[in-house]
């Protein structure tokens, strides 16, 4: 069975990408599972998708803890512990990253033994909106890496899944996927299957037994105020707004316009950004009349959120 | 009516009542509006929230609110608000709550609820003279479920359920007029992207007795297909081009609080449309002159009717 795990940020189209890969496997005669995983969080938050494909019946369920292939469409996730990109990655796992940094650098940074491949975001085929079609490129590369998906199956899967979005998107995505498929030809089949589990290898999950409580105890009351303070939405950011206080005239517009209310003013009226919660929408940058706000790629320093 | 103490954006509160760390999308225009509502209304509130994107603000055990919050079914938030108001009144009457500890009851719903299935319960609540505030954040569609059209979706917009070559075929309902026809204490259209106008209106209305209702224009990067950084630009263009009139109803009269430049001087509506993916089909592969003209004519006719 192939076990493939996708890591992306909400809004990057990874739900569709995993569905295309699953469909392509299916067209090649595999039994397939594909399932995205996300919570209430929106665009920008780290999300996951899983694809299992096997010639036999798939009895395994749930999240993939021991992947054969890990696909990352946003390299800022690699240094983010809660994104869990490296969970269960061994020397036989292939890691495919959409990044403009050298794969050797990532191998060193993350101390990886296995094969690490990259898709350049700058060189990737761009869509009509000018953004690189990373989801489609990653699917194309993955189809080649598993060595079990022909170009025609990939093409049919893309048509099948993207048709409702219109001809332009189908064609752009096909171009992005096929380019990546060809580029990675030297690595065809590098991702290999691992044995399907047998019943005796089954590990029971860590269930927690909850006692039955009366409604007064078990109803979800929140007694404290503003507890979302504990949710670090700063991890959603792929770009970090940085204020140059030398250029700032304390107009306070950024404070008024930041929808998340994460810009405060100090005693002298200078703005400060709460990076633990800033989602990186860059409204502040777009609205600052003096262009005192710049954006730099995350993570600012390795592993740093705040 | 006394003059507002809020003269410029610098007079708005710079520390915020609503906590950060909410699950709304980066750049969410609705959140930007609600942030300002909370700043002016303060902490002594009970939010009565119908299903929609903003229900996700409070997901156990997390809440950004400093006051209280309860959840209701989509159609029944104003009915829930009646229950909360009655309970508070009873507690005060019985001496179990001091009058100065009273809370403001605030209904928070999307446009799907406000323009559609919640209209009947709102009508009844205004009719009964319920003392409450209603905030409808209008993102012009069913955002939470993947942006299907609602009765607030503008003509020609593409949504998950209006994907034809000319987008949504019907026209946005005039909720302001419907609400104002009930003659409540206060009705206003606002936008989170116009913080000063918004703050002044809340300040003016919050202590009036009776029903105070707001429709907050809420650019939605996810459902309208534009980059999150452009939320304010989209909102400002809606006002400048005349697509979103800022107005209020009080004492039986409607007044516009910000009037766009006269026809010929104000930017064309297409300036607003072309920066949003949901209208992209009007510009490419070919320009749909017919529909663009029709939309422009609708906006021009509105402002011509205002004397
Ligand atoms: C009676 C009922 N029908 C359908 C739903 C599913 N539902 C949850 S949120 C939502 C969309 C609501 O749209 P809107 O009020 O505009 O709020 P938004 O999601 O845009 O914030 C729908 C249809 C529901 N919760 N209750
Ligand atoms: S908008 Fe720009 S100039 Fe104004 S306070 Fe913010 S950083 Fe300073
Ligand atoms: S990028 Fe700017 S406007 Fe957006 S959440 Fe961060 S501080 Fe606020
Ligand atoms: S879908 Fe739109 S309204 Fe809903 S949270 Fe996202 S930006 Fe806000
Ligand atoms: Mg809505």
Q: Order of strands across the widest beta sheet of chain B?
A: 2-1-3-4-6-5-7-8
Which spans of chain B have pLDDT < 50 for at least 5 consecutive residues? none
- Give the DSSP E fraction of chain B (strand runs of 2 or more residues): 15-25%
Class by alpha and beta content of chain B: alpha/beta
CATH architecture level-2 label of the largest domain in chain A: 3-Layer(aba) Sandwich
Secondary-structure blueprint:
The complex is a heterodimer of chains A (306) and B (307).
Chain A: E1 2-9, H1 14-27, E2 31-37, E3 46-54, E4 69-72, E5 94-98, H2 103-110, E6 116-119, H3 134-146, H4 151-162, H5 167-183, H6 215-218, E7 239-243, H7 253-257, E8 263-265, E9 271-273, H8 283-287, E10 293-297
Chain B: H1 29-41, E1 45-50, E2 68-72, H2 77-93, E3 104-110, H3 111-117, H4 119-127, E4 132-138, H5 175-180, E5 186-191, H6 195-205, E6 211-217, H7 221-224, H8 231-240, E7 246-250, E8 253-258, H9 269-273, H10 289-305
Helix pairs in contact in B: 1-6, 2-4, 3-4
Give an overview in words.
The complex is a heterodimer of chains A (306) and B (307). Chain A has 306 residues and is α/β, with parallel strands linked by helices. Chain A folds into two domains: 2-187, 3-Layer(aba) Sandwich (Pyruvate-ferredoxin Oxidoreductase, domain 3); 232-297, Alpha-Beta Plaits (2-Layer Sandwich), CATH 3.30.70.20. Helices cover 25% and strands 17% of the residues of chain A. In chain A, helix 1 packs parallel to helix 3 (134-146), helix 3 packs across helix 5 and helix 4 (151-162) runs antiparallel to helix 5 (167-183). Chain B has an eight-stranded mixed beta sheet with strand order 2-1-3-4-6-5-7-8, sandwiched between helices. Chain B starts with 28 loop residues before the first helix and ends with a helix. The mean pLDDT of chain B is 96. Classes of the chains: A alpha/beta (306), B alpha/beta (307). At the A-B interface, helix 7 and helix 8 of A face helix 1 and helix 8 of B. The structure holds thiamine diphosphate, iron/sulfur cluster (3 copies) and magnesium ion.
